[in-house]
Amino acid sequence: MAASRDILDVITSQRTTEGAGFPIRRPFPTAELDNLDPFLMLDEVGPVDWPPGEALGAPDHPHRGFETISYILSGEKLHEDSTGDHQILHPGDVQWMTAGSGIVHSEMPSPAMRKAGGRAHSFQIWVNLPAKHKMAAQRYQFVAGDQIPLGHSTDGLVTARVIAGEAYGVAARIDTYTPVTLQDWTMQPGGQARPTPPAEQQMALYLFQGTLAVGPQGRLIDEGQLVIFGAGEAIDLALDAQADTAARFLLFGGVPIREPIARYGPFVMNTREELQQAFDDYQSGRMGVITR
């Protein structure tokens, strides 16, 4: 039997605002946890119900040295960037953007959503790039919600949307610079699972709906909590058959890069000198502008 991963820590996310003022729930980075190598940030955006004309987003801003992932649960986002890419993201869609040497992008509510309002709920996730790839060319990978591979338990009580990595014998379509796992799991009452992500990956779980028993001791985790796992092979997960609702969570992790991190705002490099160069390049316009 595969060795279980113990729980190293449980962190409760913090509520704050980001971008033009939209609400988020953030398990990291915070004063308690700076990063989860190679993951730099995990933001649960919303859920928030916007009245007509009031939906907010993240206007034009730069990035360099890492990748951003947008995963939409509810609502619509209009993505635009300085390479000329633009697309409306719908519920279930994933956008995996490699900022690399530098990009300016914008994520705003779609015109229809700005006009009519509605519920907005999504994830914004940052993944670091190793030094050898920090100045890589910009890349935009998009997978529509109905194209994301699905893994299922034999009893049908557990479903995994495989954004990166593998689950239930199903592999993701996204190509990554660093080996990572990123999956959206839904577990119905009475469900159980023992996923076995690669042993070399540092793994975590973020629960954003319901409750869940986690780890070899079946520790009960609440909505909004992040679980960090230790070394091992399998992750023990279960939901009581009497639970009122399904549990939904992100299971994620990756092979640690273990390089120095020099970070300020939208730039993540290895040295302070590289950070200063990033600011200089952005201010001089070398990262481009969004043409509308």
**Poorly predicted spans:** none
Strand order of the largest sheet: 1-22-19-24-17-14-13
Oligomer: single chain
What is the mean pLDDT? 96
Can you tell me the CATH class?
Mainly Beta
Q: In whole angstroms, how far apart are the ends? A: 57 Å
Structural class: mainly beta
CATH architecture: Sandwich
Assign a percent range to the helix content: under 10%
| Rg from alpha-carbon coordinates | 19 Å
CATH superfamily: Jelly Rolls
Q: Features of this protein?
A:
292 residues; mainly beta; Jelly Rolls; seven-stranded antiparallel beta sheet; 2 helices; 26 strands
What features would you describe in this structure?
The protein is mainly β and 292 residues long. The chain has one domain: Jelly Rolls. Helices cover 6% and strands 49% of the residues. The protein is built from two helices and 26 strands. It has helices at 111-116, 272-283; strands at residues 7-12, 14-18, 22-28, 39-50, 58-63, 66-74, 77-81, 86-89, 94-98, 103-109, 118-128, 139-143, 150-152, 158-164, 166-167, 170-171, 180-187, 192-193, 202-209, 211-214, 219-222, 225-229, 237-238, 247-254, 262-264, 267-269. The strands form six sheets. A seven-stranded antiparallel beta sheet has the order 1-22-19-24-17-14-13, with no helix packed on it. A seven-stranded antiparallel beta sheet has the order 2-3-4-11-6-9-12, with no helix packed on it. β20 and β21 (219-222) form a beta hairpin. The longest helix is centred in the C-terminal third of the chain and has 12 residues, at 272-283. The chain is globular, with a radius of gyration of 19 Å. The protein starts with 6 loop residues before the first strand and ends in a 9-residue tail after the last helix. The model has no long low-confidence stretch (mean pLDDT 96).
